[in-house]
Each structure stands twice: as C-alpha cells, then as structure tokens.
Amino acid sequence: MHVPTAPPVYEWLARQPGKFAILELPFAPRGLLWQNGSYVYWSTVHWHGVVDAYSGFAPADYAELARVLVHFPNDRSHAELMARHVRYVVVHFDLYKPWNAPLNARVNQTAWLHEVQRFPNVVVLSVQPEERLLTRADSPH
Hey, is 24 helix, strand or coil? Predict the structure, then answer.
C-alpha cells in the first residue's frame, strides 16, 4: 500500500510549538462531513486539534459553528475561534467550488487575521487575540 507524502502545510504545522487548534476551510456542511475527511487524515501529521475535522460524526456544537462561519471573518467568528483555541486558519483554495468561494477581500481586510505561510493552493492565516490587536493599534509603530 502506498502512503502519500504529507502536504507541506501539515509538515509546517507539525513544527509549530505549543498546544493549539486549527480551522481548515472550506468548512464542510453537516450533511457532507466526508468532505473534511482529509483534514482528519492529515491531522495525524501534526497532532493539533482541528475544530472541523469530523469524518462521519460531528459533536452537537458543529452545527452552531457552521452557522457562525457562514459570516467568516466577523467578530462572532473571531470570538468562536478564540474560545476554541484556534491559532491558525488553513485555507485550501483548491477545494473551493464556485458556490462556496473564499472571501479573499474580507480576509485581507480583517485585522485579526494575518498570513503567516503560503503553499501551492493553500494559505495559513494566524488568528490574533483581541488584546494583541489593541496593543498593536495603540503602538506608534
């Protein structure tokens, strides 16, 4: 049996220190959880929690998180990601379909999201806590 080589984004995540969670986008709707099966599989490379990595069963709060992420990125989704200890959002541009295209312009204008790494078809965004945003905004530099 051939085991595929891990995509570079997962090897990069494995090298990141500390304990944190990840959100991978696109987010699979409740009836299509199989679509994020690859998130579950590749999490075995980095062993960090993935808040949307359920391959067949989702916890009770999955539907609520899905409703919140429809408006991502906004203040409510920021609060939810912080509550779930999400440090990185991994956006798989190659997995989006015409009906669920990523909101590039909104992501680029969101103060609490910062691009930290780019791979072919994938970008990793860092989720900044609110206190860091205030500190940076108040800083003269």
Answer: strand
